[in-house]
Amino acid sequence: MMEIAEDVWLFPYALKVLGVDIRRNVTVMRLNCGRLVIHSTAPFTDGDVAQIRSLGEPGWLVEGMVDHDTFSKEGREAFPGIPFLGPEGFQGRVDFEVGMLAVPPSEWMPELEVIPINGAPKMAECVIFHHPTGTLIVSDLLFHFPEISSLWAKLLLTAVLGFQRAPGFSKRVRMSIEDREAFGGSLEKILAFPIKRIVPGHGVVLEENAKEKARKLLMKQGLL
């Protein structure tokens, strides 16, 4: 567990894809009311659950995109009885009730804001901005792998994501865009926030000049 900002913690987990650890990040945010928003699920151990509960009362489980259901069952079992929120289409991936993340609970405001990424319905990603700390939490919109040592990892990331080093927007994101104007409009809305750091679903937190780096990358790839 790492505290990356006031009332924001990161729980990283190993996630192997063809032998390469792309890491699965779980972000926990504590609201002023003391309840926790647990963004992304993982194979939580009893120790993990105890650590998270020590931070506050678990209030919501969240998955930010349709394809992030890998550990949803484990997350539901680790934290039973609290609302599970996901994007449109996520309900079809699991066998338990899922609320609509795009219509967030009133208790989240004004601390958390949910921004759906329009124009790429197959991904159906929603990102979350934590206003008190300027923290943007994403799923697969952006990846950040600053230290890649093995040749195989470099080849895999180049083939699957379209880049070797970080940060970057994957081929999958670019190929999923059906309405570039709507997609660009969502990104502009996100970049209007005073972003201080970006927590990707996979990789390392982007801290230094996060907003500027993201904007330059999007412009370079023609997404803005």
Q: What features would you describe in this structure?
A:
- The protein has 224 residues and is an alpha/beta fold.
- It has one domain (2-220): Ribonuclease Z/Hydroxyacylglutathione hydrolase-like (Metallo-beta-lactamase, Chain A, 4-Layer Sandwich), CATH 3.60.15.10.
- Helix content is 25%, strand content 24%.
- Strands 1-2-5-6-7-8-9 form a seven-stranded mixed sheet. The protein has a four-stranded mixed sheet with strand order 10-11-12-13, covered by helices on one side.
- The model has no long low-confidence stretch (mean pLDDT 91).
Could you outline the blueprint of secondary structure elements for this entry?
Elements: E1 2-5, E2 8-13, E3 16-17, E4 20-21, E5 24-30, E6 35-39, H1 46-55, E7 57-62, H2 72-78, E8 84-86, E9 99-100, E10 112-116, E11 126-130, E12 135-137, H3 151-160, H4 171-176, H5 180-191, E13 197-199, H6 210-220
Parallel strand pairs: 6-7, 7-8, 8-9, 12-13
Antiparallel strand pairs: 1-2, 2-5, 3-4, 5-6, 10-11, 11-12
| CATH superfamily (homologous) name | Ribonuclease Z/Hydroxyacylglutathione hydrolase-like
Please provide the ordered H/E string of secondary-structure elements: EEEEEEHEHEEEEEHHHEH
- Count of helical segments? 6
Q: What count of domains describes the coordinates?
A: 1
Low-pLDDT segments, ≥5 res: none
What's the main sheet like? 7 strands, mixed
Q: How many strand segments? A: 13
Q: What is the top-level CATH class? A: Alpha Beta
CATH architecture call: 4-Layer Sandwich
Radius of gyration, Cα only, in angstroms?
A: 17 Å
Question: Helical proportion?
Answer: 25-40%
Tell me, rounded to a whole number, the average pLDDT. 91
Provide the spatial order of strands within the biggest beta sheet: 1-2-5-6-7-8-9
Strand-pairing-aware structural class: alpha/beta
Shape: globular
> What is the strand content?
15-25%
At CATH level 3, the topology is Metallo-beta-lactamase, Chain A
Taking the alpha carbons of the first and last residues, their distance comes to 35 Å
